[in-house]
Amino acid sequence: MTIFKNRVFGCAIVKAVNANYNADFSGQPRTLPNGVVYATDKAFKYTVKNFLKEVYPENRIMYFKSLNANGNPISLDESYEKHFEKMPNKPKKGDVAKNLLSCLDIRMFGATFAVKSTNISIHGPVQINHGTNIWKENHIYAEQITSPFSNKSNDKDAEKGMTTIGRQSKLEEGHYAHHFSVNPKNLEDVAVVAGEGAQGLTEADIALLKEGMSKGATYYDSASKAGTENELLLWIQLKEDSRLVLPNIASLLVCEEEKVDGKVVYDCRKLSELLARVSEQVETVELRLNAGTVACRNLAVEGLAVSDIVSGGTMDAKEAVLSEEMA
Predict the structure, then answer these.
(1) Range list of β-strands (E), 92-212
(2) Cα dihedral 51, 54, 55, 57 sign
(3) Which mean pLDDT values do the consecutive 10-residue runs of the chain (327 residues) have?
(4) What percentage of the chain's residues is helix, strand, coil (to nearest 5)?
(5) What are phi and psi for residue 165, nearest 5 degrees?
(6) For residue 238, what is the enclosing H or E element?
(7) Element (H, E) at 295
(8) How far apart are CA 139 and CA 43, in angstroms?
């Protein structure tokens, strides 16, 4: 296994049309104080973990909701026992750390493992920001729905002439932009604790991460999230010896107010200008997008690798960029 040593900065955009990508506890799409819709990093990570767990079951995913035989969520202790063994009363911290690093989700996103007998905090290499809606509108609507059953919770013998009425909220259209970074060095401290044989972040892990970040939201198709899809993943990989630190990549993509041929258009002028200034420290720039619904403008990056999220096929960079280029 080849260890992945490069740092990465990037942006993942998730589209939601008549959908509720990430609801709050009242069931409404989450909103900032200024009314802009947003989604947490947890929501995006969940889609990635769910995709990897179901599509690549040979990989161990530990930090994911599981139910016991009674249909109730299991505890952290029980999850550890499910994947490894019953936690001893006085466990060796190195053994526990090595087990945790054998989990794909922990090698990517880290973990806080705090149980009665030990406590280990793992700083995940992959850090993801909240995704804010960069579309021009934030229209949330609510609708009434009916259940096929009546509610007899107060009087089980009573008959009712109507079924139960419920309510659900959705966002008319939104495009959530998540900034993210990858820093494999974050695992170095826990790797020392785990000792020889501990797994690090590998090239194979990164390939799975890219796939999960570009397909996970589309793959997860629930009643509330139907209409939520991955539409773009931008991956900027630095050279191994680079000490460059890039700003929030999501803030450099501007979603234009009007669509072109039904496609959402992202103006990448600020991104192109940034990459031109730091090109000597950038190893690769990769763009994955849904070519049927997304286009870019002012994207001028030498050596840009482009592929279609849906077909998986490679594209000529010119196919993903509208004809009006930077002056």
Answers:
(1) 110-115, 118-123, 126-128, 131-133, 140-146, 165-182
(2) positive
(3) 95 96 93 97 97 97 93 94 90 95 97 93 97 97 80 66 80 97 96 93 98 96 83 98 97 96 96 96 97 93 93 85 60
(4) 25, 30, 40
(5) -105, 135
(6) strand 228-238
(7) strand 294-297
(8) 20
Helix (H) or strand (E) holding 17: strand 8-19
By CB neighbour count within 10 A (0-12 exposed, 13-18 middle, 19+ buried), where does 86 fall?
exposed
Rounded to whole angstroms, the Cα distance separating 12 from 41 reads 11
- Round to whole Å and give the CA distance between 62 and 105: 7
Tokens of 64: 């994911």
| Residue 290 burial (C-beta neighbours within 10 Å; 0-12, 13-18, 19+) | buried
Q: How far apart are CA 6 and CA 184, in angstroms?
A: 7
Contact 222, 43 (CB under 8 A): no
Predicted local distance difference test score (pLDDT) of residue 154: 65
Asked if 238 and 244 touch (Cβ cutoff 8 Å), the reply is yes
Amino acid symbol at 225: K
User: How high is the pLDDT of residue 157?
Assistant: 65
Instruction: Look up residue 173 and give its two tokens.
Output: 């259209």
3-class state of residue 62 by DSSP: coil
Question: By C-alpha distance, which of 254, 99, 84, 268 is closest to 175?
Answer: 254
Cβ(191)–Cβ(198) below 8 Å: yes
Q: Classify residue 72 as left (phi > 0), alpha (psi -120 to 50) or beta.
A: beta
